[in-house]
Task: structure prediction
Amino acid sequence: MLSLKELSSEDFSSFMRAVKLLGPKNYTALSKFTGLPVETIRHRIKHLFVKKGIGIHVHVDHGKLGLVRYWLRLKFANRLDENFSVNFLEHLANYGYLEYYGRLIPRGDYIVYLALPPRFELNYRAMLSRLIDMNVIEDYSMCRVNWIRYLSMREDCYDFKKAVWSFNWDDLPIIKSEDISIEEDTFSKPKLDEVDLWIVASLQANALTSIQDIAKTLKMRYKKVLYHFKEHVIKNGIIKRYILTWNGGVDGEKLFVMVKDIYGEDLKALEKTFYRIPFTFFDAYSTDTKLYMAFMLMPIAHLQNFLNFIFKSLPKVRDRVFYELVDSNCSRAFAIPLELYRDGQWRFNISHVLRKVYEIPEIASKK
Result:
């Protein structure tokens, strides 16, 4: 079995491509595709990927779960302790369908992504307005995401032997179709049960979690859990694709990019441009607000080159491109909230969310 030093950058790139096409769990197919023994496949995925700084994530089709993606921007009241803001957002992960939050610096606003049953949208907006009345947040904006696209790590732009990005900004290669996973705003009544959700949430938390480990957690027979995984989760297309990502190394910075009032041919040019940039993790669009968003992870040394690339590539829209840094020490992703799915339906209780707010002494005294 080749060690990390013996494995060439080209070999590792080819192996990554195979994992993108076949997924990280299909050891037999990967073995046939690469000609490597199954145990070598297991070793590379479980150990070499970590050493190379590569993460593996599942892209879940939220529409198949009866959920729709929403984007929020929240500005908490300045009088509140920063710890409260974070604790409240993590509380929303349990009771308010929050899947991700990140603090924007230096302004201190938060970007939030929700996976919410659309019938609760008006209730959610009412809850946010209530939080303004209670002086918990000063302002918010919320929009429904019509599509979101995840982009796998571009192994053709990375030197795995030297562990550095290696490409020419003036001659970026075209992204391959297997590097893109698209989720559109279509949803249906979920055809799943609690076991299916457990599997999905477990894989969101760790894409390499084995079905055996999930069965142990649920205290169920392995064959029964495997049946749910194959016949419900996979056959119903709940897991769209496995996404490979760069973990940022020691100098990676997260950027949140927004382009307002964008549509038509300008939007197509914008999408094409961000697809070519190797640091784009995902992008999204809201038809109602004509807002384009992109989430980037790049070495800080590439920031100026990135901005110059945008300047040269998008002369018509560059004056509408805004970016902010995301605080890596104050951002977190979450799995779907298992507690909110009962008896075949998603639930939402505003009082459960507001309960956390009443822990603030000034508000509790007025209750």
